[in-house]
Amino acid sequence: MRVFTASLGTETNSFSPIPTTLDSFTSNVWHPAGTYPESSHMTTAQVPALRAAAKERGWTLIEGLCTFASPAGPTSRHAYETLRDHILAELEAAMPLDMVVLGLHGAMIAEGYGSCEGDLLARARAIVGPDVPIGAEFDLHCHLTPVLVENADILVGYKEFPHTDHAERARELVELTAAAAEGRVRPVMSVFDCRMIVSAPTSRQPMRGFVDRIQAMEGRDGILSISLAHCFPYGDDEEIGARVLVVTDNDAAKGQALAERLGREFYAMRHELAPPYHTIDEALDHALAGEGGPFVLAEPGDNPGGGAPCDNTEILHAMIARGIEGAALGPIWDPQAVAFCHGFGKGAKVRLRFGGKAGFTSGSPVDAEVTILETVKDHHQSFAGLTVALGDSATIRVGGIDVLLVSTRKQAMAPDMFSGCGIDPLAKKILVVKSTNHFHAAFAPIAKEILYVDTDGPLPRDYRRIPFSRITRDLFPFHPDPLGLD
């Protein structure tokens, strides 16, 4: 069997001040055909899964370009069309094929393209024809647009937030697409529009139990796969919103009924899905009054995993003003400050300006006398079996607060982000991490308590504050009950 695979993706924040260009891809995850390494990225997890299956079953695997840009603003038309056409040319050159398996994100928006993945799939379908199964793996923060469903045979999304299951979902996708190619199943996809924009971490109830229950349904009674597309709340597109996808073995009626039932259950939990958010002072007061530590304060409002610059200083200014001791905060993206620290060297005491630079939501820079505690070349952190680059990094001390500065814009994912740059996270009373929920899997085991803090960063937790312009249908929370269940 001849199989083609490629990956293309980013998560587009329509309101981010950071542009997504061709260089955003080539400088991040960039693996031209034949150069893919043994390790994988979330949106390229299908490659190792396909390699293993090809070796076991004697398939011919043709690997195309695999690339991903860190979340930021809309992708330039030039960048998207260049990458799209490159992959499509590789696809056409690989013909004839028995199946196609792609690693995508699902929330990529470019100039002139509301759904890049939908456009890519439609063009891929035109090349391979109606009889070659196309499967694709998606981030659960995707926009499950009709054009995606129309042009794929099987879509499988991550179930976990934080996204710790990308490798498992990739193996599931490969198995289902192969079964379709071999005629063992006839996949039919059914979708229900939940008409809501939500944040739904699976690290807490009620989502934990809901996802566990959904997973138990798969592989029984003709139900091949179930995915929850949570949507990406900061992508300005008319198709934004949570949806439920059910893939059955040739039973559209069953799939649609189940998608609607699960979708209405998902919708009914909409007020309970997001964790409670605290003001900065509420969170700091609570942590300082508590025994032991570390108290982990998550700052989703400046999460670079959602396209934020990751240099907002509001919470740091508040901590400095209060004279807080025994705390650490990170990461702050400031390549210039990192370069200065590397130039001054470990142990130096200098006047430094850092943070508050990338955009009007970044706050004001911090100007302070700091001690450079550590400098590290090519720093990294871990996440769900992956190595995530942070670039050259430095740790500075401002009063009683240790601050991690990085040159590669990534969110906090694991305590080794701190420990690898001279900070002992277990010795801190307070750890502030710039992340929405990907930090949770690795930080929860060491945390005395986790508190979510709403700041003035560019990713407001109240979605009604986002200046959408393209939404045309009623969605929660803009409408209190668009499905009329209350």
From TrEMBL:
Limits of the Microcystin LR degradation protein MlrC C-terminal domain: 297-470
Stretches of the chain forming a coiled coil according to its record: none
Domain of life: Bacteria
Single Gene Ontology MF annotation: metal ion binding
Keyword Hydrolase annotated: yes
A Pfam family per the record: DUF1485
InterPro entries: MlrC (IPR009197), MlrC_C (IPR010799), MlrC_N (IPR015995)
Cofactor: Zn(2+)
Keywords in alphabetical order: Hydrolase, Metal-binding, Metalloprotease, Protease
GO BP term, example: proteolysis
Cofactor: binding details: Binds 1 zinc ion per subunit.
Residue ranges of every copy of the Microcystin LR degradation protein MlrC N-terminal domain listed in the record: 2-288
Keyword Metal-binding: yes
Role: Involved in peptidolytic degradation of cyclic heptapeptide hepatotoxin microcystin (MC).
UniProt similarity note: Belongs to the peptidase M81 family.
Protein name per Swiss-Prot or TrEMBL: Microcystinase C
